[in-house]
Amino acid sequence: MGDPNRTVSASRRPKAIVRLLDFQQIEVIVLHSRLSVEDVLRLVSEKLELSFSDSQYFCLGFTDNLNHFHWLDGSVILYDLVASTSNPKGTLTLSHHVRFFVDTIYEVQCASTAKLFFFDIHNQLTRHELLVASEDYFELVAILVSVFVPDCQEHTIAEAISRVMPLSHPPYILLKTDQSDVEKKVFEKFRYYRRLPVGTGMISFIKLAEKSESYGYRMYEALNENNDKCILSIGYKGIYIYRRSRHQNLITPYLAYPWRVIDNLYYRDKKFSIEIREPKKTESSENVADDVILINDRQLSEAFSHPTTQVSCGRRRSNNQQPRVLLFPFTCATPLVCRTVWMSAIAQHRFFLERKELKK
């Protein structure tokens, strides 16, 4: 006879709410303890009619109380996740997003995939994480208005813009153009896009966004070695570092680490570090920061042998003459954020290598 205390009614079973990019949501009841994130991803892919190839661009995640987004590995068991992070009612809220962006939208197979890319890039623009030139920004917002508020008139443009950009305009736009001028410029471009089919507008939006160096990137707040605020931006081309001004809340590009120059990534507790190959004497080092830490082999060995240190698969040389390395350290807000940054970087680097092989 089973334990009556273990009998749970259907209404009290733990569940997950999965929010989709097209504003739908799926409720998943955790009927058994072996249901994984990968199982839920397959369910979502079927609902959205994604091909197997395109479904690999997407992943599930959740946002913490510091507004950092955490990706979930497919092997994570949903029952354990609900128990550790859910609210008292046993409900876990997850989001379905594009994790891996491609060079051009024409690489995806399904029209439904392109539509989801459009929604996710819209989210990135709304979060002020898609950095573009002013004229491109006006055009992007105009396309959004044509898609979501096609009956917009000149006297309602302000309301329409607030619907598609609920967090207002990025500070770097308002630094050069005031609110009324933004509205005028957006409406001028909207007059062209209002005549185009919605699908054409979506593709135009994606193609314009692809020009941005921050296209498809996730940003995480951190501190550099001098305890200055910075942003780690992780995507399919590499890791970009941005500075955040203290007074105007502006972010500006500072350093770029393409995947081809990164040897290793590791973290311990709240410390995340990027290991770069030491430039050869014939190579230009103008892109190397002034505050680069040059550490010796003993220090590196100690870091990698520490029991709490997690290391990626890198290109470490096996000969006796170990090269010196340049190490860029950063401090994240919490150990969980640090682990997410590390795991995101590893996954993006793997995706970069896979795409590189496919293109060959």
Automatic annotation (TrEMBL):
It comes from the Eukaryota. SUPFAM superfamilies: PH domain-like, Second domain of FERM, Ubiquitin-like. Pfam families: FERM_C, FERM_M. GO terms for biological process: establishment of epithelial cell polarity. Residues 14-356 form the FERM domain. This is FERM domain-containing protein.
